[in-house]
Design goal:
Chain lengths: ~230, ~40
């Protein structure tokens, strides 16, 4: 219960800070002249993309360790991270086309970056469907771990797809070897948004982890009563 | 440089609303699921 309460507090604070990001991005960050107001979607789209990919890397790492250690906490964390990653993937796949339409003239293009991001979302969905389809906890955790590791392997391909293929999607302007190509005021807003999305990830994962733990405890108590 | 800035604020507003709905919706879903699990 203490974990659940902590997660709720962190999420509440993160949601308030997200409102602050909205205000800063819309009222106190200058507009980009080439793209107009649509460029401000960047402050939500990119942090969500970073966390959707990072969440899958964390699912994969927890899965690798789970296969060696068989610690149920790792499986619980992987399940929580996958669900939160799916939420951020939804944000990318909705804000991306909304940004693409005024800039590229199309909602969607089947290029490498967009298609691989859609594939990441489908992998997340598959991961959760798999967890829901297998009833034995040990088997469920093992099968899900294998899929989680496959998902982790996909992430570098998504990030480097803009270098490997010709795509409509622009090159990274912040996460690249050289210095970010953003004016300081825009970079500050983006960093604030990244911090808020990080806090949202932490708050959501803690709550989701606590929820899984709670359900397991209730199921165990129910089985003990029936035995 | 274009002479006039593109007028596309509607897309930005849509994206900000959609993000808010998804994030707040998930927070509410976590709250309701936990409340249901805790119900005796």
């Amino acid at each position: 219960m203490r974990l659940l309460r902590a997660g709720r507090w962190i999420t509440g604070i993160a949601l308030l800070l997200l409102a602050g990001v909205y205000v800063r991005a819309l009222a106190y960050t200058p507009m980009e002249r080439m793209q107009g107001m649509a460029q401000k979607i960047f402050y939500l789209h990119v942090p969500a993309a970073i966390w959707a990919e990072t969440a899958m890397i964390l699912v994969g790492l927890a899965s690798v360790f789970y296969l060696f250690l068989k610690d149920p906490r790792l499986d619980r964390f992987a399940a929580a991270s996958a669900e939160v990653g799916t939420v951020f993937a939804c944000v990318i796949l909705t804000t991306g086309p909304i940004w693409g339409k005024p800039i590229w003239g199309t909602w969607w293009s089947w290029d490498a970056r967009l298609t691989l991001t859609l594939f990441l979302f489908l992998l997340y969905m598959g991961y959760m469907l798999l967890r829901g389809a297998v009833s034995d906890p040990g088997e469920r955790a093992r099968f899900a771990a294998v899929l989680g590791i496959c998902g982790m392997v996909l992430v570098p391909f998504i990030h480097f797809s803009v270098y490997m293929f010709r795509t409509l999607h622009p090159m990274p302007i912040v996460l690249k070897p050289s210095t970010p190509s953003l004016p300081p005021v825009m970079l500050a807003t983006w960093l604030m948004s990244l911090g808020v999305f990080s806090l949202l990830y932490v708050g959501f994962v803690i709550q989701r982890y606590a929820l899984s733990y709670l359900r397991e405890q209730l199921e165990a108590a129910g089985e003990a009563r029936n035995a | 440089m274009p002479e006039t800035v593109p007028q596309n604020a509607g897309y930005m507003i849509a994206a900000y609303i959609v993000t808010g709905v998804i994030v707040v919706g998930y927070a509410v879903s976590l709250y309701l699921r936990a409340r249901r699990a805790l119900r005796p």
